[in-house]
Write a structure and sequence with these properties.
This protein is α/β, with parallel strands linked by helices. Helices cover 40% and strands 14% of the residues.
Length: 266
C-alpha cells in the first residue's frame, strides 16, 4: 500500500519457506490420492460402475460371502420375488463353501471377485494385487464349474494406481463400486436398515442405484446378517410393486452407464 515499504525477498527467505510449500503440496497430493483411492465416485485410478441407466432398474450387490448362515436364505428370498443379484465373493470362503458358490450360480445370480483374502489392495504391491485377484478367480471358477468372474469389487472400496492394469491381466472387465451404501456390516436393528434403504430406487433420480449390501463378514464364516434378510423381506415386494427391475452387472442397463474399456487417466 502507498506509504509502506515493500519488502525485498532474498533467496534465503525463499529457501526458508520451501519446507512449508512442499509440506502443503504434499498434503494436497495425499488428499487427492486418498479421495481417488476410496471415494465411490472417484475414477482417478480407472473407470468404475456406480449406477444403472434407469431409476427403475436396481442392482443389489452383496460382499464378503459366501456365508452358509445367510446366503441360502437370500437365495430363497430372491427366488420368491424373481430377483437377480450380484455376489462379490472372497476366494478363501469360496474354497471353503464350493457347493454354495455353485448354488449361487445355478440360481441365475452373477458372481464377482472380491479378492482372495479381503486384503486392502491400496497397500499391496503389483504382485500382491495379482495374487489376490488370480487366486479368487481360480477359486470361484473351480467351485462354480463356470468361467471366472468378469467383474470385481475391491475390499473396502480401496483402489490404487496399480489395480486397473492387474484386473485387465486377470481377464476382469471392470470395477464395480456403488451409489448407495447402508453400512449394513454393522450390527443394527432391521428397522434402521429398512429406513436406510428407503433412499434407494427412488423414481425421481436420473439413474438407478447399485446398492452395496453384505451377506457375510470378511473376518470369518457364519456372520449374523439377519437384519439384511429382514430389510430385504420388507423392500423386495414394495420395489417390485413400484415397477422396479432387478439387474446384475451383466445387464446393458448397467454397463452402458460407463465405458469400462477406456484406460485410466494419466
Amino acid at each position: 500500500m502507498a506509504g509502506q515499504a515493500v519488502r525485498k525477498w532474498r533467496f534465503g527467505d525463499i529457501l526458508n519457506l520451501l519446507p512449508a510449500i512442499v509440506s502443503s503440496g504434499a498434503a494436497a497430493a495425499a488428499g487427492i490420492t486418498a479421495w481417488g483411492a476410496v471415494a465411490p465416485s472417484s475414477e482417478l485410478f480407472g473407470p468404475t460402475l456406480r449406477h444403472t441407466a434407469s431409476s427403475q432398474k436396481i442392482a443389489l450387490t452383496f460382499d464378503d460371502g459366501p456365508n452358509p448362515a445367510v446366503t441360502p436364505r437370500l437365495l430363497e428370498l430372491f427366488d420368491r420375488y424373481s430377483v437377480r443379484a450380484t455376489f462379490f465373493l472372497i476366494g478363501k470362503f469360496a474354497r471353503a463353501c464350493p457347493d454354495l458358490v455353485k448354488e449361487i450360480s445355478a440360481r441365475g445370480h452373477l458372481i464377482g471377485n472380491h479378492s482372495d483374502t479381503h486384503a486392502n489392495l491400496f497397500f499391496q504391491s503389483r504382485s500382491g494385487i495379482r495374487d489376490e485377484l488370480v487366486r479368487c478367480q481360480e477359486a470361484i471358477a473351480a467351485a462354480s464349474h463356470a468361467a471366472p468372474p468378469r467383474w470385481m469389487r475391491p475390499p473396502y472400496g480401496y483402489r490404487s494406481p496399480l489395480l486397473f492394469g492387474e484386473i485387465r491381466r486377470a481377464g476382469i472387465r471392470g470395477v464395480v463400486m456403488w451409489s448407495k451404501s447402508c453400512r449394513d456390516w454393522k450390527p443394527q436393528p432391521p428397522e434402521r436398515l429398512i429406513e436406510s434403504l428407503s433412499r434407494a430406487a427412488r423414481p425421481d433420480q436420473p439413474q438407478g442405484d447399485i446398492v452395496l449390501l453384505h451377506d457375510g463378514d470378511h473376518r470369518a464364516l457364519g456372520a449374523d446378517r439377519v437384519h439384511v434378510v429382514a430389510a430385504l423381506e420388507h423392500w423386495l415386494p414394495r420395489w417390485r410393486d413400484a415397477g422396479a427391475e432387478f439387474v446384475t452387472m451383466e445387464s446393458s442397463s448397467v454397463t452402458e452407464t460407463s465405458d469400462t474399456l477406456r484406460p485410466p487417466r494419466a
